[in-house]
Amino acid sequence: MASVFSLIVAGEIPCYKVAEDENHLAFLDINPVAPGHTLVIPKREVNYLFDLPDEEYVALELFAKRVARAIDAAMPCKRVAEAVIGLEVPHAHIHLVPINTEGDLDFHKKTELSGDEMKSIAARIAEKF
Hints:
Layout: H1 4-9, E1 17-20, E2 24-28, E3 38-42, H2 54-74, E4 79-83, E5 94-99, H3 115-128
Antiparallel strand pairs: 1-2, 2-3, 3-5, 4-5
């Protein structure tokens, strides 16, 4: 059975896309820790980030770096934090979260955003990518 992220890659589930290339996709987390919280995934489904072959792992991190710079340019924040948890969805992914303090990176707190807010944030980040 395909992961929810693979269904997003296939276009079967919509997302708030911020960046894409041939092998990677970045989209807003629908349960964000902060506005601009973005997930970066390889399009090829691999369960665990550290199971990616080295070349694919490095390519994913380099793609995430470009996305992080776009988030930093589009969102008011001091830094963009990177987190790898990988328990929620069996598809390798990186969380990029705009933060102003270390306490902002609290995965137990979620931010409520409307669809219009999500679209606006995705467009701002995509414009900077």
